[in-house]
Amino acid sequence: MKNKKLIIILTLIIVIVLIILINFFYKNANKNLKFGNNLSNKTNQEIEEYILNISSYEADIEVEIEGNKNTTRYKLKQSYVSPNIEKQIVEEPSNIQGLQTIYDGSKLTVTNTKLNLSTVYENYPYITDNYLWLNSFIEDYKNSQNRKLYEENGQLVMEVTLEADNPYISSKKLFINKNENKITKLVVQDKNQKNLVYILYNEIKINSLKKEEVLAFKLKEVSAKQY
């Protein structure tokens, strides 16, 4: 009789534990489905909202800037933490390789890592109108009524048309590949839809960076000038 009662109690305990485990995994599965990084599970509007709420990112990018007579190409590493912490390192071209700029919210530091030389600009005004940065696009998109969300060649496009008083830049387009779960490129165009700046995102990590990680760097300064 005692053994029978013990078996019943153990069976009830096992059933309760199973119910708890099933409930736990079910909730987490739904949470991951809704808030995970798998963009293919999201609607276009959810992806748009996700992009507009990016608080930090790290990116390896290739940049082409079209001038009047030639095209300049760069390979850059970028780090950004909201609202205004930025770090950029030049990998190519070789003549400025290792050039590093860091903005900590008030001070801009420009460093030649090859020569260990650093120049510091105190009380430097934060410039959001920088076409090389994803956060600049996000601010323009947020603050404009002239924006569109559509699909083109299998990619989701977030497009913003800039104010007419800008004689050079007409629009910015951000492309997102939902199948590959990543931002692929950012294109800045003039009024004739000619590419002025073309940014290819080889790799980008979103919302995984902290302010301290951007500002923490070791450098033996041979010389520093204060402005």
What distance separates the N and C termini?
A: 89 Å
Count of beta strands: 12
Shape: globular
- Regions with pLDDT < 50 over 5+ consecutive residues? 24-36, 218-227
Helical percentage: 25-40%
Looking across the biggest beta sheet, what order are the strands in? 7-8-9-10-11-1-2-3-4-5-6-12
Overall pLDDT score: 81
Rounded to the nearest angstrom, the radius of gyration is 24 Å
- Helix count from the secondary structure assignment: 4
Beta strand %: 35-45%
Structural class: alpha+beta
Task: Describe what you observe in this structure.
Helices cover 25% and strands 39% of the residues. The protein has helices spanning 2-35, 44-52, 134-142, 211-215; strands spanning 56-66, 71-81, 85-92, 99-103, 108-112, 117-121, 147-152, 155-161, 171-177, 182-189, 195-206, 223-226.
What labels describe this entry?
227 residues; 25% helix; 4 helices; alpha+beta; globular
Describe the SSE topology.
Blueprint: H1 2-35, H2 44-52, E1 56-66, E2 71-81, E3 85-92, E4 99-103, E5 108-112, E6 117-121, H3 134-142, E7 147-152, E8 155-161, E9 171-177, E10 182-189, E11 195-206, H4 211-215, E12 223-226
Parallel strand pairs: 6-12
Antiparallel strand pairs: 1-2, 1-11, 2-3, 3-4, 4-5, 5-6, 7-8, 8-9, 9-10, 10-11
